[in-house]
TrEMBL record:
GO terms for molecular function: transmembrane transporter activity. The keyword tRNA-binding does not apply. It is found in: Cell membrane. This is MFS transporter. It is a multi-pass membrane protein. Residues 204-393 form the Major facilitator superfamily (MFS) profile domain. PROSITE patterns: MFS, SUGAR_TRANSPORT_1. GO terms for cellular component: plasma membrane. Its main location: membrane. The keyword Signal does not apply. It comes from the Bacteria. Gene3D superfamilies: MFS general substrate transporter like domains.
Length: 393
């Protein structure tokens, strides 16, 4: 029974990633066809990432009250209705409202499916299964734009094509038997009464949330600014886009290997090693430009280890937390990553304006150096926390 539950959750993760990869180019291209200003198209894209920062505080309570399967089914069904609203009421306001609603639901899906999967897998195989889900996510996200190429962006076909997997996901989510989260411990109730979930998550696992925040900054900045980095070094638009493809390939391939290493050699040690490789590989980029034999491996390693640091953070959460604490810390982890994603590219882009394009790899490497310093600090027992780094686990 557990095998089929895990398989069903992995299917939901794949469907979620496919829709995520499909919706981003769909909205941009469809709104461009409506001759909207570029800043409005950018605003529409930003709406997809901010909803979880508001709703995330209530996510653990929603899981507790509705059950995780029913809640995930709702997160598939609401975007189904949003696409249907665009189909019925083709108005700019509906496009923007639908994007906000979908972005919130997709971000919440990303967090809740991770919580569900982490609660179902056994600790012996946790690293490889969580890492495998990350690879599955990357592959399905890559397939999303390809599917859009088949449907096009005009007419009802692309909307209907998105609604079909959403309907399947909603039905499957409520059909998978789910075990309830462990009840609240009395100590938790006394300690956390009246305290916001994000603050609780920081109290329980501040270092792990820093892992998510730095990963969000690094991944978003590299994916969004690497094309500019390439063109500044004289590459064509196609070659500059190829830098992102190599970076993304590393995300898809290396994460599963890091998961296997984590199960065998220890999650904390592998996380520290991945952070160190992320520093070296990003810092190598200024010296690697123009030398493909060095550039392609550096980008590949940077993509794999930056994504791997995030994935190993999820593995550590599943290893060290159960029940409501798992929901609270996982939600805080997702919110921290989203916060890094929302704010990451803007200040680094400003640094590029001030100091030139080499500010991109230098700033990303500096962020991971700061993370490494936190991971390597002397372990100490801290009351009221399960942080594996603060407690020396």
């Amino acid at each position: 029974m557990r095998f089929w539950r895990v398989a069903g959750i992995l299917f939901l993760i794949g469907a979620e990633a496919l829709l995520y990869g499909y919706s981003y180019p769909f909205f941009s291209l469809a709104l461009e066809k409506r001759e909207l200003a570029n800043w409005l198209i950018g605003l529409n894209a930003s709406l997809a990432g901010v909803g979880i920062l508001f709703f995330g505080h209530f996510l653990p309570q929603a899981i507790d009250r509705l059950g995780i399967g029913r809640l995930i089914g709702l997160f598939f069904f609401i975007p189904f209705l949003a696409f249907g609203a665009i189909l019925l009421f083709d108005h700019v306001f509906v496009w923007f409202a639908a994007r906000f609603v979908m972005g919130t639901c997709f971000s919440a899906l990303w967090t809740t499916t991770e919580i569900w999967l982490n609660g179902e897998v056994d600790d012996r195989n946790r690293g490889r299964i969580i890492a495998g889900s990350g690879t599955l996510y990357a592959i399905c996200q890559f397939l999303g734009p390809l599917a859009l190429g088949l449907t096009g962006v005009e007419g009802s076909l692309p909307l209907v094509a998105a609604m079909v997997p959403l309907a399947v996901g909603a039905i499957l989510a409520v059909s998978i038997p789910s075990r309830p989260l462990a009840p609240h411990e009395a100590a938790d109730e006394a300690a956390f009464e009246g305290v916001g979930n994000l603050r609780v998550a920081i109290t329980l696992a501040g270092t792990i949330l820093l892992v998510a925040f730095i990963s969000g900054i690094g991944e978003t900045a590299m994916q969004s600014l690497l094309p500019l980095y390439g063109t500044a070094h004289g590459l064509s638009d196609a070659a500059a886009s190829g830098l992102v493809a190599t970076f993304a390939l590393g995300e898809a391939v290396l994460v599963i290997g890091l998961g296997l290493l984590a199960d065998r050699y220890g999650r904390r040690a592998v996380l520290i090693g991945a952070t160190l490789v992320a520093i070296v590989s990003t810092a190598t980029l200024p010296f690697a430009m123009g030398r493909d034999l060095l550039l392609q491996p550096a980008l590949f390693l940077a993509g794999g280890t930056i994504a791997g640091v995030y994935t190993l953070g999820i593995v550590l959460i599943g290893q060290d937390f159960r029940g409501q604490r798992l929901a609270i810390v996982s939600t805080g982890f997702g919110m921290s990553y989203s916060a890094g994603s929302v704010i990451g590219a803007t200040p680094i882009g400003y640094l590029i304006d001030l100091f030139g394009v080499e500010a991109l790899p230098v700033a990303v490497a500096a962020g991971f150096i700061a993370l490494l310093a936190f991971l390597m600090r002397p372990a100490r027992a801290t009351a009221g926390t399960s942080d594996p780094f603060a407690a020396g686990k």
